[in-house]
Amino acid sequence: MLFTRKRMLAALAIAMVSTLALAGCGGAKKDAAKPAANDGKKIVLRYAENQPKDYPTTKAARSMADDVKKKTNGRITIEVYDSAQLGDEKSVIEQIQFGGIDMSRVSLSPLSEFAKQLNVLQLPYLYRDGAHMWKVLDGKIGQDLLATLDKSGIVGLTWFDAGARNFYTKNPVKTMADLKGLKIRVQESSMMMDMVKAVGANPTPMAYGEVYSALQTGVIDGAENNWPSYESTRHFEVAKTYMLDEHNRVPEPMIISKKTMDKLSADDQKVIREAAIAAGKVERQLWAEREKTSEKKVRDGGSTIVALSPAEHDKFVKAVQPLYEKYGASVKDIIKQIQDVK
């Protein structure tokens, strides 16, 4: 991965701080394949989170930090930096690769650049529902996909929930046909743009922070995201229709630098892994609660919530099938494994 000079210098500075924090492990002078034994010295790990402090993912990270601190009697401390204090997700992932930052929870889209097989999880309508997704991710398929990160210097620990993404628009829409010709904001992802085209709309890549004013001024007709994002950004004030098509359920991995992990003793690695799994369960519960709160706020704010009939939902599913051939050709076996999970 190529770095700009500015990003490299910043990352190297963080790496020096992280190396000093981990020096107590004794791993800096040992073979990475043979982690140092627990020598009782304190360890400080830096955790990057781009969401605010009251967001489910951030709360779960702090829950993990408390868990690790308790289990190690304060010997290992995880410092959680929320609100993108340590940089955007792409730069955080790059710094995690060489230990400049120790841990993070990141979106799947930027992480997929480092492990292409993860792209399969971004395919629209991949799962039957949320329960199906968690059976996949909590089983062998999910663990195998996390393991694909190893070659990139990253260790996948667990999966966080990010809900289902839905379309929302300024004007009423009730069917896929109603989306035809509408300008819909999407992430800068070729798969997402093709997905919007497939259902008849015109994809408009745009920075997330510009969406509110673009909706307000009519530069775009709509966007797509989950309940908490639709509510917390106040997009429901300028796009009053929220259509429950659930085109994407994209989980978010919690990751740790392989360099950091290799410096920890086997016992400390076990503590980190167990605490991460526990944090994943905490986050899912917090996410479910946040979704309910967000739904109530937007309903109270006057939004119209459109539920699709099974027949209408099937139209969306059929429309996006060409994306499976374009983006899923190399992972057809994984797709089949996922679809076969009962």
How does this model look, in words?
- This protein is α/β, with parallel strands linked by helices and 342 residues long.
- The chain folds into 2 domains: 5-114 and 149-161 and 252-289, Bacterial extracellular solute-binding protein, family 7 (D-Maltodextrin-Binding Protein, domain 2, 3-Layer(aba) Sandwich); 164-249 and 309-340, Bacterial extracellular solute-binding protein, family 7 (D-Maltodextrin-Binding Protein, domain 2).
- It is built from 14 helices and 11 strands.
- It has helices at residues 5-22, 56-71, 89-97, 108-111, 130-137, 140-147, 190-198, 211-217, 227-232, 258-263, 266-300, 310-319, 321-327, 332-340; strands at 43-48, 76-81, 103-105, 154-160, 164-169, 183-186, 202-205, 222-225, 241-249, 252-257, 304-307.
- The strands form 3 sheets. It has a 5-stranded mixed beta sheet with strand order 2-1-3-10-4, sandwiched between helices.
